[in-house]
Structures are given as structure tokens and as C-alpha cells.
Design goal:
Blueprint lengths: L2 H20 L2 H13 L7 H11 L8 H21 L6 H23 L8 H9 L9 E6 L5 E6 L5 H12 L4 H4 L1 E6 L4 E3 L6 H15 L6 H4 L3 E5 L12 H16 L7 H16 L8 H11 L2 H6 L2 H13 L6 H12 L8 E7 L5 E8 L2 E6 L5 E5 L4 E7 L2 E7 L10 E7 L2 H26 L2
Parallel strand pairs: 1-5
Antiparallel strand pairs: 1-2, 3-4, 3-5, 6-7, 6-12, 7-8, 8-9, 10-11, 11-12
């Protein structure tokens, strides 16, 4: 089939299923027609089965009698796959019976986890309609970028939640469960990262991303534009159970902190930055050769050296100092480099914090950093990143977006009875940062007690 014809059928399936999702009375009619089209009397039953496989994760018939009929219809056709092994059944009928088996599995999944809030994405519809989804129970796959820069592929279906994908990814990489390791999946919108919640369906996230890309881009929607870019990133860092970190967690933590250093969100002196850069070089490239190549130097400065310091540094002197520190690490294994790097970086009180720049509106719009960690919300100075004020989570009365700014209300102790016991602080921030900061504060407060209970049970 021509590419244009495939795209026509994909767009048609998307429109049909999305329209029925928005108009509930059409859902019963859709399934009634799909049952009729897959009854064996039509020459294009396989295409109707694939459309049913796309529809079942989205919604199910609201009438119990129609739902009962759908289950019996799928069970009857699924049984044909067993009978086909002992008979000379045509390949078309056998393919339809296999698709019915897949629909039966999708139906049980949808009954267990619930329906969706978004229609099928272009990627989901193309995969289901143009390929055979019966080879596996999880026919869809997407790559996730991990902090080291490598990619890991995860498999899912129309009913898979983000939390399930995250759990399988942690298991593959050798990480602790997401609650303890603190990792989460983010959507990379360049330059912002949007946290994906565990109860969201991954296919819903893909559809929402595709719709945003369609609204923002006026040109042709290529696969590179509409495809969802996922990143695995540390959301929480629990200092009390840091001793339980796995070797893979420590390695990924080094890459994450190198990224924070590059963004200028970690206090650094010139000497410390050069030593950390040398450790990072030994960890990635092993022993130093006689001279640092241009590609190695470019990679090191791009991944593990503060951008602001790099703009004013002398490249020749910097290259020489990094090489001098690197040659002193000959024979040191990557594991030892990870241990040494974390031992130095953990000395900072706010190691592992979620940091975002902001301007305090009540103090002449002074530039500061807001840092979140397991002890509370902290205000840091912009130059040396020293602590200005700190608020434990139990003192937060309210927090969130207010007229485009991030506002937090905290309780305070007052000596004068006339003073209010509450203080309101407002910070000017990027709207995306406001949304994500609000989400991360809520997640820290929600997960804090759960982590304490789980760590106390050990």
C-alpha cells in the first residue's frame, strides 16, 4: 500500500475513535458496528479487528448487554485459533482469530485499569494498523534517554500506565523501585522537562504531545516533530537511605550532577571544577593519553564544566589543568571514580536537590534559586548558592501558581500579637517552571511519609 494511502487510513481511524471518545452515545454504536464487521461475513474483517484493538483501550460499551456480547464475540473468535491448529483454515481466518485473542487480552486490561482520556496518537494508530500486533502482548515501543546519554527501549500497549513503564525500566537498569530510587519519566520539550505522573497512560501522553506539536508547528508534521521524547531523571533524592543506592544509581547520579554543574546549579570553584572534570574523564575514557584530543575536550567541557566559567576561561590553560589532574588518576577504575566524585559532591548540603532559578518579587526582584529536597523548600543566593531562608514542608500552608507567579504561604512564629502568623512569598518564574515546581513540591510531600515507612520496615 502506498504511503499516502496508509496515512489516509491512519487519519480516518484517529478521527473515528477520537470523535466517539468526545461523544459518549457514539461508543455503543461503534462497538455494535465493529461486532457486525468482524462476524466473518465481510471480506475486510481483519481491518475491523485492528480498529477494535485500537478502540478497546480507549473506552468500552456503556451498556452491560453490549459489553457481554462483545466479550462472547471475542471469546468465540479466539477459540478458533485453537481449532485452526488441527484444521486447514485459511490464513485470513487464522489472522482474524489471532487478532481476536489480542482484543481479548486488551479487553481484560481495559476492564482492570480503566479507559483513556485522549484518542490514539499517530504513532499508536500506525503501529496497530500497519503491523501485526499479535506477536507480543505489548506491541508498542519507545526509547528513553537515561542520564548517561544512552537509550533504553520500553514496551507498552494502549492501557499501560507511566508507572508500569517506569517500574520495568528500573528493573532493566538495576535500580531500586522508583519510590526509593527517586527516578521518574519526563517529557523533554527542550529546554523544559515535564514530569509524567505514574497514573497517566503513556499513550495519552503521546497524543497530548502530538496535539501540542500540531498547534505550535505550522509546517508539515514529520515523525521527528510529533514523536514523544522521554527522559529518565531523578525526581527525589532521599539522603537518609543513600547508603542503599545500587552501583547503577551511583553512576547515573554522577551523570545527573555533571549536568547540574554544567547548568551552573552547583557551587564550583575553578580548581574543583577541573578536578571533577578529570574524574569524569577517567570514568568515561579510562587512562589519559599523552594529549587530550579535541573531541574529548569538547565532550568534557560540554558535559561536566560550568558554562559560565567556560565562557571566561582560557582554553589552553583549562586543557592543560584538566590533563594534569587526569594523568594523576591512571589506573583508577570507573567504580572508584564514581565513589570519589560522589564523596566530594555530597559535601554540599543541597546535593541532589531540584533547583530552579526565580526572582523574589518582594525584594526588588532579586535573582535567587529555589531548591527542593527531602527536608523542605530552600532559597539560595544566586552567586555562591548559600542558604538564605529555609521552610520545612510541614510549615507550608499553600503553594502553587498565582497570577503567573509561584506563591508559597508559610507559618511563622511571631512575638507581636498584631502580626499575622502567616507569611506569603511570591516568585517570578517561567510558567513551565511554576507548574513543575508545584508538582515536585506536592510529590515530595506525598512520598516523604511513604519512604520513611518503607525504610523503617527494613
Amino acid at each position: 500500500m502506498r504511503a499516502g494511502a496508509v496515512q489516509y487510513h491512519v487519519d480516518l481511524a484517529q478521527n473515528i475513535l477520537t470523535t466517539a471518545l468526545e461523544h459518549e452515545p457514539l461508543q455503543n454504536e461503534l462497538f455494535a458496528q465493529l461486532i457486525r464487521l468482524t462476524s466473518g461475513a465481510m471480506p475486510y474483517g481483519l481491518q475491523a479487528w485492528k480498529l477494535m484493538a485500537l478502540a478497546i483501550p480507549l473506552y468500552l460499551p456503556k451498556q452491560y448487554s453490549l459489553l457481554w456480547l462483545l466479550r462472547r464475540h471475542i471469546e468465540r473468535w479466539s477459540a478458533m485459533a485453537l481449532e485452526a491448529s488441527g484444521s486447514r483454515e485459511t490464513s485470513v481466518e487464522e489472522s482474524e482469530s489471532k487478532m481476536a485473542g489480542y482484543c481479548g487480552h486488551a479487553l481484560e486490561r481495559s476492564l482492570r485499569v480503566g479507559g483513556r482520556v485522549e484518542g490514539p496518537s499517530k504513532f499508536e494508530a500506525t503501529t496497530m494498523l500497519s503491523r501485526d500486533p499479535c506477536a507480543t502482548k505489548l506491541p508498542l515501543c519507545i526509547s528513553v534517554q537515561i542520564p548517561s546519554g544512552d537509550y533504553q527501549v520500553i514496551e507498552f500497549d494502549g492501557s499501560t500506565e507511566v508507572g508500569q513503564c517506569l517500574s520495568s525500566l528500573c528493573l532493566k537498569l538495576g535500580l531500586r523501585p522508583a519510590l526509593l530510587s527517586g527516578y521518574a519519566l519526563y517529557c523533554d520539550t527542550n529546554p523544559n522537562l515535564i514530569l509524567l505522573k505514574g497514573r497517566q497512560k503513556l499513550c495519552d501522553c503521546m497524543t497530548a504531545w502530538e496535539r501540542q506539536a500540531r498547534d505550535k508547528n505550522h509546517g508539515p508534521l514529520t515523525e521527528a516533530v510529533v514523536s514523544l521524547r522521554l527522559k529518565l531523571r531523578m525526581r527525589h533524592h532521599w539522603r537518609a537511605i543513600a547508603h542503599e543506592e545500587t552501583p547503577m544509581e551511583r553512576l547515573l547520579l554522577c551523570h545527573r550532577m555533571a549536568e547540574e554543574i554544567t547548568m551552573g546549579q552547583f557551587p564550583m570553584s575553578n580548581e574543583l571544577a577541573e578536578e571533577i572534570c578529570a574524574l569524569y574523564a577517567q570514568m568515561n575514557f579510562s587512562d589519559c593519553s599523552k594529549i587530550i584530543s579535541d573531541s574529548q575536550f569538547a565532550k568534557l567541557t560540554a558535559r561536566c564544566y560550568p558554562k559560565k566559567m567556560l565562557e571566561v576561561a582560557c582554553e589552553r590553560t583549562l586543557r592543560m589543568n584538566i590533563q594534569q589532574n587526569w594523568t594523576q588518576l591512571v589506573g583508577v577504575t570507573p567504580t572508584e571514580c564514581v565513589r570519589m566524585m560522589l564523596a566530594v559532591l555530597r559535601k554540599w548540603k543541597f546535593f541532589g536537590s531540584y533547583v530552579k532559578p526565580a526572582r523574589e518579587k518582594m525584594n526588588n526582584s532579586q535573582l535567587i534559586y529555589i531548591a527542593l529536597n527531602d527536608s523542605g523548600l530552600h532559597m539560595l543566593s544566586s552567586k555562591q548558592m548559600e542558604l538564605v531562608r529555609s521552610f520545612p514542608y510541614h510549615k507550608l500552608v499553600s503553594f502553587g501558581e498565582f497570577h503567573g507567579d509561584f506563591m508559597v504561604t508559610v507559618t511563622r512564629e511571631t512575638k507581636d500579637d498584631e502580626e499575622t502568623p502567616r507569611e506569603r512569598l511570591t516568585f517570578a518564574m517561567d510558567p513551565k517552571h511554576v507548574e513543575q515546581l508545584t508538582c515536585h513540591v506536592a510529590e515530595y510531600m506525598r512520598c516523604q511519609k511513604l519512604v520513611w515507612k518503607m525504610s523503617a520496615m527494613k
